[in-house]
Design goal:
This protein has 505 residues and is mainly alpha-helical. The chain is built from 19 helices and 2 strands. Helix 1 crosses helix 8, helix 14 crosses helix 15 and helix 17 packs antiparallel against helix 18.
Length: 505
């Protein structure tokens, strides 16, 4: 009963916030970017809660905690430094200024105006719409796993219910509602993670005792004192996870557009500190507690967890007191709904502003734009729910796989054109097209050959077949190839580029 009361109170609050902001959306800029007027705390928490969801808490913390033990905490540290601190420092100020100068409300609009190409705008919009769906599905997947454990309700019902609730407050309230919700959700996440980590460690006698017991467990090679070591049993592939989950934020549309909405340079400076501390507590706590999964879950004859990787964290949560389990439910719901709201708002605004509006020869006024965006919020959530229900039945499509595919394609395609586009005047349209093709091409080819084809390949200890490593490679390849291609292709119009860069010089 405590769980149900806690959940109901939280959901009523979220919907109430959406209703409050319903009449405060005066147009497209308000609905999509909150009027570009958000301060440091709201933007930093929106960034952090969009970053960390049930995908991290349930999927990644469980799977990589099992694989790397206590050293999985390095992923959280990487998320804080590479995924939060550095993008705020390197991208934040220039993104805020240049996007405002270009009047870009979405990432495809940024590509259109920065590189003077409607083709890039359309192509990036298609990529975003297609590859945000598996990420949204993975968030639903992780959320339903925990709810099934807590309430003994079929995961399909959980997915549909959460989809409806998310749709209600995003459709009604827009960006400002999601930002306030993100702030509240972020506070819950900070308190909840700290409480859960302490309780999990106390279940086996505290930190020292838990590490000792973890060290007694042998790895697949029969070695002990490995899962409690500084770099764990597989540091090479651990690096791949750090790169994908950290560097990926630099090229994800739902993340970088947070810088579009922040009000000024001072807010960016403050937000940098807030966002980094938030990531260190939430991501560091998630992965650190996931590293102790082997103390709660037994392996099967193959060495994998008995009920699958996505069951590890929900099983660990079963050991918590009911009141704390209720907090965890709200914690994961908070993380997931904030991420979901960011994803669906990004996708629907991209589809409306970058695909539908140009097809109608820009005959849509702002009222119609907002209406169409609200319709596509519902459509996007429906598709994501269907994929989540289908894929949750297949062991090959665990949460980490869905997220790896999504982040690999999106960040692999966008990270270099966006980052270099803020700093280098010489970047060409041909280089951007190269990045789009390579990012999506590497991810899709890898997905069909390895993920769906069932092939495996090792290269000097590196798991080539891992979608995580494929996504990390796509990002790094993009960063290298874009400036190289730009050296050998037609220069952009110098006058236009110079005018664009007046906003950041």
């Amino acid at each position: 009963m405590t769980l149900w009361i806690t959940l109901a109170a939280y959901l009523c609050l979220m919907i109430g916030i959406g209703a409050y902001y319903r009449k405060k959306n005066q147009g497209t800029n308000d609905y999509v970017l909150g009027g570009r007027s958000l301060g440091s705390w709201f933007t930093a928490f929106a960034y952090g809660t969009s970053y960390f969801s049930a995908v991290i808490f349930v999927g990644y913390a469980g799977k990589f905690g099992w694989a790397y033990g206590a050293s999985a905490a390095w992923i959280g540290i990487g998320n804080a430094i590479i995924g939060s601190l550095l993008p705020w420092i390197i991208l934040g100020k220039r993104t805020q200024k240049m996007s405002k100068h270009l009047d870009a409300r979405t990432m495809p609009e940024f590509f259109e105006h920065r590189y003077d190409s409607k083709g890039l705008k359309l192509a990036s919009a298609v990529i975003i719409f297609i590859f945000l769906i598996p990420y949204t599905a993975s968030a639903f997947n992780g959320l339903s796993r925990l709810f099934e454990k807590a309430f003994d309700v079929d995961y399909s019902v959980c997915i549909i219910a959460m989809g409806i609730i998310t749709a209600v407050y995003v459709i009604v309230g827009g960006y400002k509602a999601t930002a306030l919700n993100d702030f509240i959700q972020g506070l819950i996440m900070l308190v909840g993670i700290a409480a859960v980590v302490i309780t999990i460690l106390n279940a086996h006698g505290g930190l020292g005792s838990s590490l000792d017991k973890l060290g007694d467990i042998a790895d697949p090679k029969g070695r002990t004192q490995i899962y409690n070591s500084l770099f764990g049993p597989d540091p090479i592939n651990l690096v791949g996870v750090v790169i994908l989950t950290s560097l990926g934020t630099w090229g994800l549309p739902q993340m970088v557009t947070k810088f579009y909405a922040i009000k000024d340079e001072q807010a960016i400076k403050q937000g940098t500190i807030i966002s980094t501390v938030f990531a260190l507590v939430v991501a560091g706590g998630c992965y650190f507690q996931g590293g102790f999964g082997r103390l709660f879950v037994d392996p099967d004859e193959t060495g994998a967890p008995v009920e699958g990787f996505d069951s590890i964290i929900p099983t660990m949560m079963n050991s918590l007191p009911e009141i704390l389990f209720g907090i965890v439910i709200v914690l994961v719901l908070s993380a997931s709904m904030s991420t979901l709201s960011s994803l669906v708002l990004t996708s629907s605004s991209t589809l409306t502003l970058d695909m539908i509006k140009p097809m109608m020869k820009n005959k849509m006024d702002e009222k119609k734009e907002v209406l169409v965006m609200r319709i596509f919020v519902a459509v996007f959530l429906l598709l994501s729910c269907l994929i989540a229900i289908i894929t949750i039945r297949k062991q090959v499509t665990v949460i980490s796989t869905l997220m790896g595919i999504s982040w690999g394609a999106l960040a692999g395609a966008f990270i270099a054109p966006f980052m270099w586009g803020l700093y280098l005047k010489r970047i060409t349209k041909a280089a951007v097209w190269t990045s789009f093709i390579c990012g999506v091409g590497i991810t899709v080819a890898h997905m069909f050959y390895f993920t769906f084809g069932g092939h495996t390949m090792m290269l000097g200890g590196l798991a080539v077949h891992s979608p995580i490593n494929a996504g990390a490679f796509a990002m790094l390849f993009s960063i290298v190839i874009v400036p190289i291609v730009s050296l050998f292709t037609a220069k952009p119009d110098e006058a236009k580029v110079k005018e664009i860069f007046t906003s950041v010089e």
